[in-house]
Specification:
mainly alpha; 14 helices; transmembrane; ABC-2_transporter-like; ABC-2 family transporter protein; transmembrane helix; membrane
Length: 276
């Protein structure tokens, strides 16, 4: 009986999320011209960032044993993964200003649905489609240009992208959980989101030892991007990690997400309304 109720609750929760997501999509497409311009601007802006990387390779040929095709794979993986989390996690980005400071989070607590689900349904943002398409294009070009692509390992692409999206979504949830203490969101957390995207576009060997350790075992950016890329490219790791590690390392993104969900629940349990 209890299991049946749990299944019914989960089904109704998913149905609610689909309704909220659809309403968000309809609202954004009400003005298709504006939506198209925003998406195009997002595409062009992120593409210009890749041209900066391209110019480095035009000048130096290769960097640390990595050619342009290999780095394009890194770039594509991290940008596609981040665009997915950007699409899903808007409610957590604005959580401090729109929910905690105004006291609107109290209303979410009164609803018989998980707060994480309600915030995921805050807005299914479509603008990051531009980053997604641009990142997917660069990723495909990188796999085509890289000289030693292991095509049997390309199945890692969706696995790495979902792991990366889970990791970035975990960062956004952790940022929102921090607002239970700070009320307003802290811009310093952008070091882990946009800064993480920038760091993920380059080989891990370019960074100092302490930063490599943090990007592997703290914020598992290397686990969802660098090591899967090595496995796809059949590129030996200069740091000595076996290539097989890249086939399981995207799971680190889901572990990080689970940890941030636990932090979120602790924050909700200690929440005290700030009023309006």
């Amino acid at each position: 009986m209890h299991n049946a109720k749990s299944r019914n609750a989960s089904v109704s929760g998913l149905a609610l999320y689909r309704r909220m997501a659809w309403a968000s999509i309809v609202a954004q497409l009400r003005y298709p011209g504006t939506f198209f311009l925003q998406m195009t601007g997002n595409f062009v802006t992120t593409l210009l960032g890749f041209f900066g990387i391209w110019s480095l390779f035009q000048r130096f040929g290769s960097i640390g044993g990595w050619d342009l095709g290999a780095v394009a794979v890194l770039y594509g993986l991290v940008n596609v993964a981040f665009s997915v989390s950007e699409t899903l996690g808007r409610g957590f980005e604005v959580f401090g200003g729109e929910y905690v400071r105004t006291g609107q989070f109290d209303r979410l607590l009164l609803r018989p649905r998980p707060t994480l689900l309600l915030l995921l349904g805050h807005e299914l943002r479509l603008r990051p489609i531009g980053r997604f398409l641009q990142g997917a294009f660069v990723l495909g070009a990188g796999l085509w240009l890289a000289p030693h692509v292991s095509w049997s390992a390309v199945w890692l692409v969706p696995w790495a992208i979902t792991g990366g999206a889970a990791m970035f979504l975990g960062v956004l949830i952790g940022q929102a959980a921090l607002c239970f203490k700070t009320v307003e969101g802290l811009e310093v957390v952008n070091v882990l989101t946009y800064g993480g995207v920038e760091a993920g576009q380059y080989p891990l060997t370019m960074f100092s030892r302490w930063l490599r350790r943090f990007l592997t075992w703290g914020l598992p950016l290397a686990g969802v991007c660098y090591y899967p890329a090595l496995a796809m490219l059949a590129h030996p790791d200069p740091l000595g990690m076996p290539l097989a590690f890249g086939m399981v390392s995207p799971a680190m993104g889901f572990v990080f997400l689970g940890l941030m969900i636990w932090v979120w629940r602790k924050g909700v349990a200690s929440y005290v309304s700030s009023g309006s």
